Amino acid sequence: MTDIKDQQLMEDMLKEHKEDIVLLKQWISHQQNIPKTITDEEILMFLHSNYYNLKNTEKTMSTYYTMRGTVADFFTDRNFNTGTMKQVQDVVKFCFLPNRTPKGWAILIGKLNTPDSSQLHLDSAIKLLFMHLDTFLQVNPLVSGVVFMFDMQGVTMSHLTRINLSVVRKYMTYVEEAIPFRLKEIRIINVNNVITHIMNMIKPFMNKNHLQFIKMHAPGDLAEMYEKIPRELLPKDYDGEEASFGTLNKLAVNHVNENIGRFEDEEKLLAQLNKNFKKSNVTIEGSFRKLDIDRERERKRDAVSEKLEAYIESSLFDSYHFSFLSFGK
Predict the structure, then answer these.
(1) What is the DSSP letter of 242?
(2) Other C-beta atoms within 10 Å of 241: how many?
(3) Is residue 233 within a helix (H) or strand (E), and if so which, with residue range?
(4) Can you name the residues that pair with 107 across neighbouring β-strands?
(5) Count of Cβ atoms closer than 10 Å to residue 185 Cβ
(6) Which parts of the sequence belong to the CRAL-TRIO domain (predicted)?
(7) pLDDT reading at 316 higher than 50
(8) Is 265 exposed, middle or buried (0-12, 13-18, 19+ CB in 10 A)?
C-alpha cells in the first residue's frame, strides 16, 4: 500500500495506534489464512474500518482473507483482458466521484450500461465492483466513510432470472463482515416494482443492522438524498456539476487497470495460503461459524433460498407469485 493519498494522516495514525498494530501482528502470526507480509498500513486500514476495536478488527481480517482465498467467483482472474471480465465492462459500470460529502464520505456510483439481461453475469459484475473498491482503498485506506449509489434505471423483470442466490449470499457476507471500510449508506435510485421484488429477495440474506443503511428512491424523488449528498457532487448527467458519468467511469477503469499487477500478486499469495488453510481442515463455512454468524439465520436463509430458486427457475414473476416475499413490511 504505497500510493496513499493522505500520507501525513497515515503517519500520524500509525504512531497513535502503534500498540494496537503490535497486538494484531502477534495475533496474525498465529493465523494460517492471513499473509505474514501484511503491512502496518494495511492493518491500520482494518483497524480504522472497525473504529479501532481490536476484536472486531480480528473478525473482519479473518473473514476478509478467508473469502479472498476461497471465493473464486469474486477474487480470481481479475484481469480486464480475460474471460467475462472483458465483456462485463460493457454491461455494468462504476466510478468513485472526485469530491466527497460534507462528512468526508466517498461516493461510488454503479449502473447498468445495457438493458439486455442476457449479458448480465452477476458474479462478474460483483467482481468488477470489488476491483474498483480495492483500487480506491489502495489510495484512500483511511476514508471516513463510503456511500454506494446504485442506479436501477434499465432493470427489468428479466434481470431477476440472472440472480444467483449463492452469489448473493457471498456478496452480502463480504460486504457485511469483511469489507475494510466504513459503509455509511446504500442509495438505490430510480427504483421500480422490479427493484422492490429484488430487495425482498435479498432481505433474508442481510443483517438487520445493515438494512438501516439502505435508502430507496423512486425516479425524481431525491430531495432527501441531496441533504446528505449535495447535488453539485454528482455527474452532470445526474443534474450535478461534475464531469459526465461516462467520463468518470473511463478514468476509474484506467485506475483499476493500473492495479492489475497487484491483483495477480495477491491471488498467487492467497492461493498458497488457502492450500495451507485447507490442510488444517478449516472450511469457509466453518470459518464463518467461528466468526459468530448466527446459525438460525443461516437456516432461514436456506429455506428462503429453496423457495426463491424454484420461482426463479420457473420464471413466475408476476405480482401474485411475489406476494409471499414481503419480508419485514
Answers:
(1) B
(2) 12
(3) none
(4) 147
(5) 19
(6) 109-246
(7) no
(8) exposed
d(CA 100, CA 143): 10
Model confidence pLDDT, tens digit, residues 126-168:
999 999 999 999 999 999 999 999 999 999 888 888 888 899 9
Q: Determine the 3-state secondary structure of 35 from DSSP.
A: coil
Q: Which residue has cell 467511469?
A: 249
The 10s digit of each residue's pLDDT in 207-261 is: 888 888 999 999 989 999 999 999 999 999 999 999 999 999 999 999 999 999 9
Q: Taking a C-beta distance cutoff of 8 angstroms, is the pair 91, 119 a contact?
A: yes
Residue entry with cell 442481510: 206
Query: Residue 42 to residues 137, 159, 180, 287: CA-CA distances in angstroms?
Result: 10, 37, 9, 22
pLDDT digits (tens, 9 = 90+) for 105-129: 999 999 999 989 999 999 999 999 9
Contact between 3 and 138 (Cβ < 8 Å): yes
- 11-20, 184-193, 317-326: least confident range: 317-326
Residues in the chain: 329
CA separation for the pair 119, 79 (Å, rounded): 18
pLDDT average, residue stretch 185-197: 92
Half-sphere exposure at residue 116, Cβ-oriented, CA atoms within 13 angstroms: 7
Q: What residue type is assigned to position 153 of the chain? A: Q
Residues contacting residue 20 through CB under 8 Å, at least 6 positions apart = 47, 52, 54
Q: How far apart are the first and last CA of the chain?
A: 44
- CA–chain centroid gap for 270, Å, is 19
